[in-house]
Amino acid sequence: MFWVGVLGPLIVxxxxxxxxxxxxxxxxxxxxxxxxPGQVASYDELAEILWDGAPPAGARVAIRNYVKRLxxxxxxxxxxxxxxxxxxYAVDAxxxxxDALRFTALCTKGGEAxxxxxxxxxxxxxxxxxxxxxxxxxxxxxxDVPSNVLLTAEVPRLEALRMQAQEWxxxxxxxxxxxxxxxGGLTQLAMDHPWRERFxxxxxxxxxxxxxxxxALEAYxxxxxMLVDELGVEPCRELRELQTGILAGDPGLAAPGPAQVSLLxxxxxxxxxxxxxxxxxxxxxxxxGRPAVAGASPAADSAAEVGRAEAADAAGxxxxxxxxxxxxxxxxxxxxxxxxxxAELRAWLHEAAAxxxxxxxLVIGGTAGxxxxxxxxxxxxxxxxxxPDGQLYVNLRGFDPSxxxxxxxxxxxxFLGAFGVTEEQIPDSxxxxxxxxxxVLAGKRVLVILDNARGAAQxxxxxxxxxxCLALVTSRARLPGLAATEGARLVPLDVLTATEARELLAxxxxxxxxxxxxxARQLTESCSRLPLALSIVAAxxxxxxxxxxxxxxxxxxxxxxxxxxxxxxxxxxSVRAVFSWSCEQxxxxxxxxxxxxxLHAGPDVTIPAAASLAGVPPGQAAVxxxxxxxxxxxxxxxxxxxxxxxxxxxxxxxxxRTVDSTAQRRDAAHxxxxxxxxxAYAGARLLNPVRPHVPVQPPRTGVTPETLERASHALAWFxxxxxxxxxxxxxxxxAGFDSYAWQLPWTLTLFLDRQGHWHDLVxxxxxxxxxxxxxxxxxxxxxAYRDLGAxxxxxxSLAEARVYCCQALELHRQLGDRLGQARAHNxxxxxxxxxxxxxxxxxxxxESLVLFRAEGYxxxxxxxxxxxxxxxxxxxxxxxxxxxxxxxxxxxRGLGDPLNEAATWDSVGYALYHLGRYDEAISCLRTxxxxxxxxxxxxxxxxxxxxxxxAYHAAGQPDLARQAWEDALxxxxxxxxxxADQVRARLLGDGTFSPARPAAAxxxxxxxxxRDQALGA
Length: 1017
Known about the structure:
Distance between the termini: 41 Å
CATH topology of the largest domain: Serine Threonine Protein Phosphatase 5, Tetratricopeptide repeat
Oligomer: single chain
Helix content: 55-70%
Number of domains: 7
Strand content: 5-15%
């Protein structure tokens, strides 16, 4: 099954499994094709959509490349759905396989039924059809598809149809007597779309049929005021006639079928009508009308009833003085940034004012020092006028150094006292206190800020019950319980952006920050852009106005001393102290893992790697990671990948140095390196099963390497862990784990080479050589020198590469390692070929052939045979070249070395092309490409594509030739590789290109590199 969803972020499902399409341009193409399945979108149309009307030169080449990659991303089944049809592409799908088209079809069906009147009570289908249509929506259409052309053309149409479908669905629901369940949704729709009078009319009718005549008339007055004030027009005829009918009790407005609700006044979906908190009888009515809590025990029900009775009695006795509490603490001077969060808070306030159904509790969550309290108080001061009956504030001290949080009963007494309730009037039980508190706030517009909460149980009794009040909670914990039971909305607070951090320093330091911009930037990064840390730095700088910021930046550059530098002498102004308060709440397994994560190489970690680091089973590590994430001490910045900022990393490492012994810390680092080495080792073997391996020690106890089953899994793992693996090599080198410092680079060589990360390869192999020298490991040095030479050759530093490969050859000779000598000869041959010294290259390849044959090493022998054949072809001896290459092909069958087999097919195709056997050459080259295509070896495909283009050109198929060259050029341009110039020379021939003229040298450079693409066979 194939499914494309555009009614929200783009999604693709194949047989029910989601397929990620990460590249923006690929998402644009897929969305554009999916919105018109079966119809061809031309290159020109796609270019217009992809580049918003301003396509670059070479757009057609780029589109082909994007489509090719899209097919690869979708996989072999779904990829075939993207078909090439002149003059462009189409998606082979039915309307039922695209949510937007399925939505349109369902809307058409439902709308026709509504217009025919086929949706009365007892008539099945219409309500369900329109509900199914609306359920397809997951958010804003094409949310992550970056094309203004596509968005402008499609989103308004889809949004308009969605609005119409909502109207039709409400019509169907009202016709079926669903008025009670529609009130909430219609209230929200009327607020979200105030100019759409049909929603107001439907809301009025639903309220009236629920026996809420007064509210129905109030809904009319709200709509009328809005229309008159904002547009200067009276309501439409439908609304006016509906108001008249409601006033007259028109029986024609009654619900269809038997009456489903009593017309007597009663509590509706919004809860009981608001009443005065002063009246004892009103309080009794609220208590009596309150439903029992599902799942509560009889004892709890009894205690709750006693509490409510006490509260009602106390509310009747309390004399409410005209007290308006204004408890907000002073706002933070120079408050900076948080634009998105402030906008969300303002939107929340607007929603709450507009609808009784809106969320009444908001939780600002984030790590220690992120500025949660500052944000809450800053917004509260901005919004104070919206809460004329008062603003309450309490610091619940959930993460206080004293370890004693404020109990909810103490906070309740504080809040009640703020409204003039005397101590004698406050009941003893917390249930009664909470009930009295809710009674006092009923009908008032009060903002309640609950700062620094530890958990939901501490917060829940302090939440107002009145729909006119709002509660804003801050916490270092996620408080999922509040979201589950109270419908609370979470506003996550991360560190500041780089711009916000610089603005904070500039606001505090003025011209000094402007005069020393580099130092200011260094300070923001040393502080991890954490508001608390930046405030401490600003305070230190302000206290010493003559101190250059550069001196302070140098002091903070030392990671181990950074926490000492970020201490203003007050626990509340010490990064170390503030972090410690969060850690005090953790379980022992979680705090141990947190400490050990400070020893991790970074920049992020997965649960399997964390498990190996701690030496525990993955399930146990997952529980500890979840606890750390709940405490905002780490964050899941990507699915399954967790990280914390540098200050938390420094604090974790500081804790580890304090609590864990040197041996314990070294064991943890050892396990971590074992995890990455053994997983990477298995991945490297999957990428090239015939590559001669290096011996590694078994993993230590407690290490659980990840399981990689296929080469595609290995490629994905290497891609995800690339930065971590580079950091792990550096850590191993710095910490004296020298065997890892050369073996890890060995495992990474294949992946980095195939992906074109040759600068990384060069740096890694230099590290590997230094580590192997410290160990006195000649074999390790030989491997590293050979791979360093290969990487330098890829980058065009041929003379330097030759030196390194010759050093590798000499070391292998000293060791008596004939396989190593053969591999070094092969690499030297490649470099000689690139320099145009073909006779010398052939000599080294023949040396390699002799050594591999003497050792009986079949993969190397097959590769050497292909190498000799290729070089003979380079010298014009095509017939003999074919003999060598065909021997190699015979050996590759069953060897399990598809990449070198593809290289040999390329050599055969090249020779056949020069023998004038163009059709056979094309067949061989297409075979080579089909073998290599699934291995993400983009750079090496370019050689085959160039050769294929040459063969097509010679066979009189210029369009196919140009397409092959353009595909090669697109890959090389992505890699920013110098070989791109050689391909451009072909494309600039304008049909007169002759391979014998401009590309004689190019064939050597491009073709030669492919022979060694498997690195090590």
